[in-house]
What does this fold into?
Amino acid sequence: MWGKLPFSIADNYAVDVRNLAAVRKWYKEKLGFHEADKNRQVDPGRPHTDLYASNEETFLSLVQLGPGTLAEKRHVIFYAKNLEKAHQWLTDRGVIVPPATADSGGNRFFQFQDLEGNTIEVCVEP
It folds into this structure.
């Protein structure tokens, strides 16, 4: 289920990007995602790529923004069984990751940004 990645995605997400090719490459190189074999229709006229963390059914869609279009900010969450392992794995791959923290409810997590500044949270699997 977890494959070689120290995290998984529980829900499908769409992330708006300006440079689809560069961001696709970053997610594959830095986060270990792979492209889907199947082609889904998202929004006619908007190039996109569906990426998977492993052999899961859930995916992350990178969707190219049109000129002058504002990105919709979404709260993307990855889940880890071992937060420290996920943190170290990302750091080893050159991702700038601040130290983990906890919220008022005791949930432990850290956040980092992708190539275009989209925030991704990694938290302990519920």
The chain has a mean pLDDT of 87. The helical segments are 20-31, 83-92.
